[in-house]
């Protein structure tokens, strides 16, 4: 089952991930909310839409903008609406 790990802690785990552009997107209910803090960062993708970010916090350490998601998506990306993906050193095991 795919899982996301940062700073020795599993922060998301699901067997219902979606793979888009080689990124595992985790369903919103599979992330452990206590490790996620809303960020004001936003970026735009021409075919997915406007991305929002989370800072991941584990044991007092912060990984700024290490997770992103699309609260609203363009039609071609509806399968990942609200799903969360990772980068910046977050290890995703499949």
Automatic annotation (TrEMBL):
<protein>
    <submittedName>
        <fullName>DUF427 domain-containing protein</fullName>
    </submittedName>
</protein>
<dbReference type="InterPro" id="IPR007361">
    <property type="entry name" value="DUF427"/>
</dbReference>
<feature type="domain" description="DUF427">
    <location>
        <begin position="3"/>
        <end position="88"/>
    </location>
</feature>
<dbReference type="Pfam" id="PF04248">
    <property type="entry name" value="NTP_transf_9"/>
</dbReference>
<dbReference type="InterPro" id="IPR038694">
    <property type="entry name" value="DUF427_sf"/>
</dbReference>
């Amino acid at each position: 089952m795919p899982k996301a790990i940062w700073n020795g802690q599993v922060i998301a785990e699901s067997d219902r991930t979606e793979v888009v552009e080689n990124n595992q997107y985790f369903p919103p209910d599979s992330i452990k909310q206590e490790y996620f803090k809303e960020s004001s960062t936003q970026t735009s993708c021409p075919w997915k839409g406007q991305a929002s970010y989370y800072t991941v916090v584990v044991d007092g350490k912060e990984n700024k903008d290490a997770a992103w998601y699309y609260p609203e998506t363009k039609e071609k990306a509806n399968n990942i609406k609200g799903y969360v993906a990772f980068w910046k050193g977050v290890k995703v095991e499949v």
